[in-house]
Amino acid sequence: MRFGIKTAPQHTDWKDMLDVWRGADEIVVFESAWNFEHFYPILGLDSHGPCLEGWSMLAAMAAATRRLRLGCLVTGIVYRHPAVLAKMAATVDIISDGRLELGLGAAWNEEECGAYGIELGTLRERFDRFDEAVEVIVSLLTLQTTTFAGKWFQLTDAWCEPKPVQQPHPPIVIGGTGERRTLRTAARWAQHWNFPGGPVEMWQHKRAVLQEHCAAIGRDPAEIMTSTHLRLSPEGDVGALVEDAARWADAGMDLGIVYLPPPHRASVLEPVAQALRPLAS
């Protein structure tokens, strides 16, 4: 199994997160680094504390690192028009010299959407909009011009230049477990599916559903990398983390993303890396 890290940009300082990402950039056990895309903290009980915006942070991290692949896990599609998000993604891929992983999701956070006046919509509306948005983003990143006439989005001879470094586009990462909509969309568009969390047995079932959706459209499911979160406890219990990682490695998970608890400290990286190294492939 391969490994990455994730820093939630909440209840922490920018400099501390920067130190963590720069430190991970020097440790080959970690191949990628991730943040989340929320405007309010989502971990813990206090949703009104400090929380940095994810894509601004990602652009800065792209310039501050040299090796790590990087992404938001994942970007709620309701927060921005997909054409704007495609431009942002192309720009960050250029800044990073081709290291972006483009994480996309339908969004779920009612509190921040209600507070900011962002239309979240019903569950069906979210996924209808999500399906259109992913198609729009891939088209803008791939084709010279895009014309699209959907219910939610309409584009006419739209350009997205310059194109990203990665061709035909940065890997699309779709997070979630919904069997009828999320996994069907992942089967069509994703190069990477993130299972946000849950028992190994649940992931095995969801993976089988994803494989069924792939079969229905004639796609090889081996083209889609799988990942999940491995949570380091606030106490820094590396032993428990390794036990969890070993279970996922035995089950066939491709990538384990170590969720580092805030406030962030670069000093945790080396003990975690040393503990995971025997499992790294």
Describe this structure in words.
By secondary structure, this protein is of the alpha/beta class. The protein contains nine helices and eleven strands. It has helices spanning 14-25, 54-64, 82-95, 110-116, 123-142, 182-189, 200-217, 238-251, 269-276, and strands at 2-7, 30-35, 69-72, 75-76, 102-105, 145-149, 154-159, 172-175, 192-195, 225-231, 255-260. The strands form two sheets. It has a nine-stranded parallel β-sheet, with helices on one face. It has a two-stranded antiparallel sheet with strand order 6-7. The longest helix is centred in the middle third of the chain and has 20 residues, at 123-142. The N and C termini lie close together (5 Å). The mean pLDDT is 95.
The portion of residues assigned to helices is 25-40%
What is the approximate shape?
globular
Strands of the widest sheet, in order across it, are 3-2-1-11-10-9-8-5-4
> So how many helices?
9
Order of SSEs: EHEHEEHEHHEEEHEHEHEH
Compute the CA-based radius of gyration: 18 Å
Global structural class = alpha/beta
Quaternary: single chain
The first-to-last residue Cα distance is: 5 Å
Poorly predicted residue ranges: none
β-strand number = 11
Q: Into which percentage range does the β-strand content fall?
A: 15-25%
* Largest sheet entry: 9 strands, parallel
Mean pLDDT: 95
